[in-house]
Amino acid sequence: MKSLFAILFAFLLPLATLAQVNDNSDKSKAGTLTGSFQSDFQYYRKDTVIDAALPDEKIGSNSYLTLMYQKGNFRGGVRYEAYYPALLGFPLNLTGHGIVNRFLTYQNDLIEVTAGHFYEQFGNGLVLRALEERPLGIDNAIDGARAKLNLKDKVRITALVGNQRDGFEKALGTVRGASAEFALDKILKRKEGATGALNLSLNYVNKFQPYDGVLDNVPKNSEAYSVRLLASKGRFGINAEYVRKQKDPSKVNQYSFAGGDMAYVNLSYNQKGLGINVSAQSLHNMNFRSDRDAIDNRTIINFVTSNTKQQTYRLLTLYPYTTQINGEVAYQMDLLYTIKKGSLLGGKYGTKIAFNASVCYELDTTGIYLRPQQSEIFKMGDKNYYQDFNLEINKKWSPKLKTILYLVHLRYDKDQIEGRRGFGVVTSNTIVLENTIKLAKKRSLRIELQHLSTKTDFGNWGMALAELGLGGKWFLYASDEVNYVSFDTNKKARHFYAGGLVYVRGGTRLALNYARQREGLVCVGGICRLVPASNGFGMSINTTF
Questions:
Q1: For the chain, which has fewer Cβ within 10 Å, the N-terminal or C-terminal residue?
Q2: Residues in a beta bridge with 58
Q3: Within 10 A of 55 (CB to CB), how many other CB atoms are there?
Q4: Model confidence at 525, in pLDDT bands (50, 70, 90)?
């Protein structure tokens, strides 16, 4: 502990000195020091009703301190994290404390050079996306070196090398990559006043990891490369990317020696009052990690999002879709339409209608071993993993009242998606009614009523939530999420109560809460982590300076 604080003191002393200078002299000479702090605490209680076990340590906490300094063309930063222990559901390798991120960057109009930790994305992230997603416990930052070259915004070239973060350690494999982006509309010198854009990017990533196991011919190197096209013209747009990946046996793909590939296409059309978006993706064996034996969300090099609607209402998070990284074919469509103001259905303020539908099937891999380097993209198998239909009606009735009505029908293969056995396919219907009422200046009341019905799994659910905003600084909320099994009269209803108080002032947010947390998945963009059932009190502090 003493050595840690010595390191922090040695790093902060010169920054603090510069910050003091900043108060008494020209800012351009002193530079700028900024930062943020976040700390989340949870006090756990045993609760046999919801099967919430009491952990060995009753109190868990995650804390993060980030400091950033910039002067001229230079900027640098450091982040310290502490887990005593980590909150339930976070990766087990997040134990203890230490400096997990430090970097120094120089940047001008032509080049950008970074030494230390950095985050990066090539294309849509299908071959490389190093990111921090704190709610999921994901931080796969690359510790190494990166250089970027920008030629008048016409050509951008990136090259990098390093090792990914794995908790408080580094992943075993080394990641190397290069990307070239070409703004073809600028290179071809389109006529002045012409609208639209045309962008082409070529991306390459190499993963090297030694192997001394019992299998034969396991490659030490695995490569992935992609080409992406972004184009827009008037009301139309396209985002398309194709990926090829060499064989990469791993724990996730059961040490398969087949290659991987993926195709993603997104088509869009927009005009006043109407938006249409259609997307499709097909993937096979796209697990790509810098440690072939890692599981869950550790050491992931790429980021393949689910091609489904990302639900935010509480009951709909019971059945979130998780990308089937070993193989799937998925289609999605979004339709947004605004009924004009003054019409019979639009009323005084207009009415917004949103329809979304998605479907995900297994990839037909018949004969894949005869074509070990690629699959037949968009060839669907017989098994349906997931499908949903979503209808949202958003209506403003007056300056003080707004309503959202949301209807969802979905089909969810729980065994396949969550890797379980004996649950089968869940079919459910959900209705949500949300009302936001302005009570007075800077005061509002938001009420949610939700109901999910199904004849399988844990049965029907209902939820009520009330959120009161007072003056833009104080927020109060209370909710009850209840699971009742209408087809099993022998099982009692289970209530999941929650309530809290939030205070916001400037860049500081303080939250106190009590919650009965049901077991389930927390997902962001199709990447999920399993949260166990828990009961207890929590406190969260967030501040920026």
A1: N
A2: none
A3: 17
A4: low
What pLDDT is recorded for position 288?
96
In 3D space, the residue among 71, 92, 292, 53 whose CA is nearest the CA of residue 172 turns out to be 292
**Cα–Cα distance, 114 to 112 (Å, whole number):** 7
DSSP state of 338: E
What confidence tens digit (pLDDT) does each residue in 433-481 have?
999 999 988 899 999 999 999 998 989 999 999 999 998 899 999 999 9
Place of tokens 């947004």: 336
State whether residue 12 is helix, strand or coil: helix
pLDDT of the residue at 192: 62
Structural domain boundaries of the chain?
A: 311-322+333-502
Say which amino acid occupies 2.
K
Q: Which of 257-261, 416-420, 487-491 has the lowest mean pLDDT?
A: 487-491
CA 121 from chain centre, in angstroms, equals: 14
Q: Distance between CA 191 and CA 313 in Å, rounded?
A: 47
β partners of residue 33 = 69
Averaged pLDDT of the chain: 90
The residues that bridge with 18 in the sheet, in sequence order, are: none
Residue 271 clears pLDDT 70, i.e. is over it:
yes
Q: Give me 142's structure tokens.
A: 């690359």
pTM above 0.85, yes or no: yes
Phi, psi of 52 (to 5 degrees): -95, 110
CB 17 within 8 A of CB 8: no
CA dist list (Å): 439 to 24, 399, 444, 448, 501: 46, 11, 5, 16, 19
Per the document, the length of the chain is: 545
The DSSP bridge partners found for residue 161 are: 145, 176
List, as one string, the DSSP characters of 354-390. EEEEEEEEEE--TTGGGSTT---TT-EEEEEEEEEEE
pLDDT in the model for residue 490: 65
Taking the C-alpha atoms of residue 386 and residue 364, their distance in angstroms, rounded to an integer, is 16
Picking from 310, 474, 482, 487, the residue whose alpha carbon sits closest to that of residue 408 is 310
Amino acid occupying residue 124: N
Contact 434, 459 (CB under 8 A): no
CA–CA separation, 369 and 475 (whole Å): 58
Query: Tokens in use for 164?
Result: 């990914």
> How much is the CA Rg of the chain, to the nearest whole Å?
26
Residues contacting residue 99 through CB under 8 Å, at least 6 positions apart: 4, 7, 8, 78, 79, 80
| Closest to 282 (Cα-Cα) out of 359, 358, 370, 363 | 363
What mean pLDDT do residues 181-192 have?
85
CA 246 distance to own-chain centroid: 26
CA distances from 161 to 62, 103, 142, 171 (A): 29, 14, 8, 13
- Residue 9, pLDDT > 50, answer no
**Tokens 């550790």 sit on residue:** 298
